[in-house]
What does this fold into?
Amino acid sequence: AELRAAMDASRLVTEQQDAKRQGELEATLAQRFMGLENSFRKVDHINTENTGHLKTMVTYVAAIQQDATRHDMEIKEVQQTIRELKQRTRAAVQNSLGLLAEAHSETEHVGSASERPARSQ
It folds into this structure.
């Protein structure tokens, strides 16, 4: 009977120790789980902030691209205007040179016609 009582007491002590260890293990696991939850919340918060920053950057980049496209089109328009002005200037210069040559030719023709009667007289 003493042996049985000693075994029962030993078993009770072992069960109490096991229960205590299990309680400690559960407490440790709960602390670690809370730590992980806090870490996940922080990561989620940082992720949300980063996503917001990225959206802002995407908006800025899109605006910059639109500005660049608009400026590129403006530059092309200016280049086209310059080409047209060069062509008009060339045409005007050629026309002026043609008129000048024609006037010079007429002046020579009139001058030589007026010289002829003077010689014949």
Q: What stands out?
A: Residues 2-120 form the longest helix (119 residues). Residues 5 and 110 are 153 Å apart (CA to CA). The mean pLDDT is 91. Helices lie at 2-120.
